Amino acid sequence: MARYDRAITVFSPDGHLFQVEYALEAVRKGNAAVGVRGTDTVVLGVEKKSAAKLQDSRSVRKIVNLDNHIALACAGLKADARVLINRARIECQSHRLTVEDPVTVEYITRYIAGLQQKYTQSGGVRPFGLSTLIIGFDPYTGVPSLYQTDPSGTFSAWKANATGRNSNSIREFLEKNYKETSGQETIKLAIRALLEVVESGGKNIEVAVMTKDQGLRQLEESEIDGIVAEIEAEKAAAEAAKKGPARDA
Amino acid sequence: MKLDTTGLESALPLFGTNCQMVDGFTAAPAFDLPTTLDFDGFQKEAIQMVKPAKGTTTLAFIFKEGVMVAADSRASMGGYISSQSVKKIIEINPYMLGTMAGGAADCQFWHRNLGIKCRLHELANKRRISVTGASKLLANILYSYRGMGLSVGTMIAGWDETGPGLYYVDSEGGRLKGPRFSVGSGSPYAYGVLDSGYRYDMSIEEAAELARRAIYHATFRDGASGGVASVYHVGPNGWKKLSGDDVGELHYKYYPVTPSTVEQEMVEVSGA
């Protein structure tokens, strides 16, 4: 009984919080998610495990709205995600009620991160097993942002980031190929990054685009297929260009 | 609605007793009921006693160059003038002002508390709070103390990203956005002068003079208003105190004594 009362998250002798690190392991096993920030667009892309034949794919949306101008994607335990998303949605509306202003992306990220941190310092609970990617536009200045939180409760802003399976390879790719983009270019960059670790095809990727004026737009499978085809064509052209001149010499 | 007890931790026991009363039939009352035949009438009287007397005149209005805020400086306890030099315009922060009408202690405390909340908001969100947000914070707190005898009739004036802002907030929980407000026992007189002389595109000096005159006329007719007419201006760079004139002196400035010819002078009568 005595052991049962202890907080689940305790420090190890060398200063680690093992439960938090194990939660990060759970994140690493979750499906890949990538976020890219452009000058006027922010894009989220998530790997979609092939749906079972009888499953209604529309009921498993992985990129969700927190408010009209904020969206979230995550990697890790999806059930934990539901709880966190519901609390965040309530906080968005509560903020609107008490201050008559929509939340800023930084505010809601801070709230979610704070919630995740609380569960690493409470008795009888375990940390949330997910990392989130939060995108949105500042309601007044219109500046786009991308933030990431993780089970330890830390958060920071990013130009582009990935989380979940093989996030390291995606991040390497982004570090090599990131540049300030806008509109369609941003979407392409996000999909190219995701394609590094996911089989190509519209049915394996879920992509959502947020713009200041139109809010969140989920891309149709056909649209994604189209962009993937474009990317493959560009890749093939680049390969051919590399091989071509070499043969002449 | 979730009661906002962040302002006063010590108010918690107060809420405890209140909830018991609201629960009604299940719990016994926490205090002895007064011996009276008409308890409802007694309760109404008690509420009327603490109801805001609000002996004061304050006003604020939005115009082209920002917000003009003005107030008198008299504090009265019934017929006794307890002070002629009360600061009724409270500086919440360098770009927001609040006016005081009603209970002086209530206004001062809650405005200071609002200043704390605004500063915490700035530190947490790395940007200033809007006038909308600040007035809403205050209104929510006052609403949660509704019926408990707070007496606050205040205007929150400031300049934020969206331009000049003016809100009226009171202890009944009301919150109104508007271009012109006057609060207090002298407000009808102030409104008369303010509304008839108001134009949106006035210069700062014209607007200050209008505000000063409105306060003066209110102090002239209302016994509970007097002292010094202070005028503040809130512009894009924050507030600035423009003037503080004694209303007695203002009277002679507006209505100077004209020396008139004397008909007959009094002469000494030698002892008869």
Automatic annotation (TrEMBL), chain A:
<dbReference type="InterPro" id="IPR029055">
    <property type="entry name" value="Ntn_hydrolases_N"/>
</dbReference>
<dbReference type="InterPro" id="IPR023332">
    <property type="entry name" value="Proteasome_alpha-type"/>
</dbReference>
<dbReference type="InterPro" id="IPR050115">
    <property type="entry name" value="Proteasome_alpha"/>
</dbReference>
<dbReference type="GO" id="GO:0005634">
    <property type="term" value="C:nucleus"/>
</dbReference>
<dbReference type="InterPro" id="IPR001353">
    <property type="entry name" value="Proteasome_sua/b"/>
</dbReference>
<dbReference type="Pfam" id="PF10584">
    <property type="entry name" value="Proteasome_A_N"/>
</dbReference>
<dbReference type="GO" id="GO:0019773">
    <property type="term" value="C:proteasome core complex, alpha-subunit complex"/>
</dbReference>
<keyword id="KW-0647">Proteasome</keyword>
<comment type="similarity">
    <text>Belongs to the peptidase T1A family.</text>
</comment>
<dbReference type="GO" id="GO:0006511">
    <property type="term" value="P:ubiquitin-dependent protein catabolic process"/>
</dbReference>
<dbReference type="GO" id="GO:0005737">
    <property type="term" value="C:cytoplasm"/>
</dbReference>
<keyword id="KW-0539">Nucleus</keyword>
<keyword id="KW-0963">Cytoplasm</keyword>
<dbReference type="Pfam" id="PF00227">
    <property type="entry name" value="Proteasome"/>
</dbReference>
<comment type="function">
    <text>The proteasome is a multicatalytic proteinase complex which is characterized by its ability to cleave peptides with Arg, Phe, Tyr, Leu, and Glu adjacent to the leaving group at neutral or slightly basic pH.</text>
</comment>
<dbReference type="InterPro" id="IPR000426">
    <property type="entry name" value="Proteasome_asu_N"/>
</dbReference>
<feature type="domain" description="Proteasome alpha-type subunits">
    <location>
        <begin position="4"/>
        <end position="26"/>
    </location>
</feature>
<comment type="subunit">
    <text>The 20S proteasome core is composed of 28 subunits that are arranged in four stacked rings, resulting in a barrel-shaped structure. The two end rings are each formed by seven alpha subunits, and the two central rings are each formed by seven beta subunits.</text>
</comment>
<protein>
    <recommendedName>
        <fullName>Proteasome subunit alpha type</fullName>
    </recommendedName>
</protein>
TrEMBL record, chain B:
<keyword id="KW-0645">Protease</keyword>
<keyword id="KW-0963">Cytoplasm</keyword>
<keyword id="KW-0865">Zymogen</keyword>
<dbReference type="GO" id="GO:0004298">
    <property type="term" value="F:threonine-type endopeptidase activity"/>
</dbReference>
<dbReference type="GO" id="GO:0005634">
    <property type="term" value="C:nucleus"/>
</dbReference>
<dbReference type="InterPro" id="IPR023333">
    <property type="entry name" value="Proteasome_suB-type"/>
</dbReference>
<dbReference type="InterPro" id="IPR000243">
    <property type="entry name" value="Pept_T1A_subB"/>
</dbReference>
<protein>
    <recommendedName>
        <fullName>Proteasome subunit beta</fullName>
    </recommendedName>
</protein>
<dbReference type="InterPro" id="IPR029055">
    <property type="entry name" value="Ntn_hydrolases_N"/>
</dbReference>
<comment type="subunit">
    <text>Component of the proteasome complex.</text>
</comment>
<keyword id="KW-0888">Threonine protease</keyword>
<feature type="active site" description="Nucleophile">
    <location>
        <position position="56"/>
    </location>
</feature>
<dbReference type="GO" id="GO:0005737">
    <property type="term" value="C:cytoplasm"/>
</dbReference>
<comment type="function">
    <text>The proteasome is a multicatalytic proteinase complex which is characterized by its ability to cleave peptides with Arg, Phe, Tyr, Leu, and Glu adjacent to the leaving group at neutral or slightly basic pH. The proteasome has an ATP-dependent proteolytic activity.</text>
</comment>
<comment type="function">
    <text>Component of the proteasome, a multicatalytic proteinase complex which is characterized by its ability to cleave peptides with Arg, Phe, Tyr, Leu, and Glu adjacent to the leaving group at neutral or slightly basic pH. The proteasome has an ATP-dependent proteolytic activity.</text>
</comment>
<comment type="similarity">
    <text>Belongs to the peptidase T1B family.</text>
</comment>
<dbReference type="InterPro" id="IPR016050">
    <property type="entry name" value="Proteasome_bsu_CS"/>
</dbReference>
<dbReference type="GO" id="GO:0005839">
    <property type="term" value="C:proteasome core complex"/>
</dbReference>
<dbReference type="Pfam" id="PF00227">
    <property type="entry name" value="Proteasome"/>
</dbReference>
<keyword id="KW-0647">Proteasome</keyword>
<keyword id="KW-0539">Nucleus</keyword>
<dbReference type="GO" id="GO:0051603">
    <property type="term" value="P:proteolysis involved in protein catabolic process"/>
</dbReference>
